[in-house]
From TrEMBL:
GO molecular function, one term: structural constituent of chromatin
Protein known as: Histone H2A-beta like protein
Record-linked InterPro entries: Histone-fold, Histone_H2A
Recorded GO CC terms: nucleosome
PANTHER family with a match to the protein in the record: HISTONE H2A
Lineage: Eukaryota, Metazoa, Ecdysozoa, Arthropoda, Chelicerata
């Protein structure tokens, strides 16, 4: 079965995020935090993959590479703020 032309759905279960939070912070996690954090992670992932996908398409590649993701994170102004490179921190 060819993956060409088909989009792989991105799915991040809230329960998985909640379980990871509880493991890291026992007795300190409200379930609503997991819902919010899952939404933020899905949004950031969609943004990165959209830009990386365009870069891969420019290269005429059917697959997104690590370089495409790195390009997306370092060339989009908003993502660059969220993921600063060492030495480029948000110094004030």
């Amino acid at each position: 079965m060819s993956r060409r032309g088909k989009r792989m759905p991105f799915f991040l279960p809230t329960q998985t995020v909640y379980d990871m939070l509880v493991e890291a912070f026992p007795n300190r996690v409200n379930p609503q935090c997991a819902v919010y954090l899952t939404a933020v992670l899905e949004y950031l992932t969609a943004e990165v993959l959209e830009i990386a996908g365009k870069k891969a398409k420019e290269r005429r590649s059917p697959m997104i590479t690590l370089e495409d993701i790195t390009f997306a994170m370092h060339n989009d102004p908003e993502l660059k703020k969220a993921f600063p490179v060492s030495g480029e921190g948000n110094s004030k």
